[in-house]
Specification:
Blueprint: H1 2-19, H2 25-31, H3 34-43, E1 47-54, E2 58-64, E3 71-75, E4 84-88, H4 107-114, E5 116-117
Antiparallel strand pairs: 1-2, 2-3, 3-4, 4-5
């Protein structure tokens, strides 16, 4: 039981590392740029990888917290639309603005709840 509690605590700490001084992921997106978030996560010690991406989403800069396995996926220059990012827990579930997996959401709702657009 203690291991589960420590795991939960480490994911909360990791989420805090992503949002920094902001109240949630949506506020972070509204108040930062893709390059600022990339620099911030690099300074936090997250492991960085760049993937080419598809026509619509464009290249992705992927950051993995080596301590928790939490992932931040940043699309700074999508082929279509506004730059955005998404965050996954170590199980691969995309998280909403408060760091929760919206398990009862439809596919469309899940997309709307887990994409955070820079500057919006």
């Amino acid at each position: 039981m203690l291991k589960m509690d420590l795991q939960f605590f480490s994911e909360i700490n990791s989420f805090g590392k992503i949002i920094g001084k902001y109240s949630d992921l949506e506020q972070l997106a509204k108040n930062t740029s893709p390059s600022e978030l990339i620099k911030y996560l690099e300074k936090q010690g997250w492991k960085k990888e760049v993937q080419p991406g598809g026509r619509k989403s464009g290249p992705a800069t992927i950051f993995i917290d080596p301590n928790t396995g939490m992932v931040a996926r940043i699309h700074a220059s999508p082929g279509e639309g506004t730059p955005y990012f998404r965050v996954q827990n170590k199980s691969g579930n995309y998280l909403d603005k408060n760091g929760n997996f919206p398990s009862n959401a439809t596919r469309k709702e899940l997309r709307d709840l887990t994409h955070f657009y820079f500057g919006k």
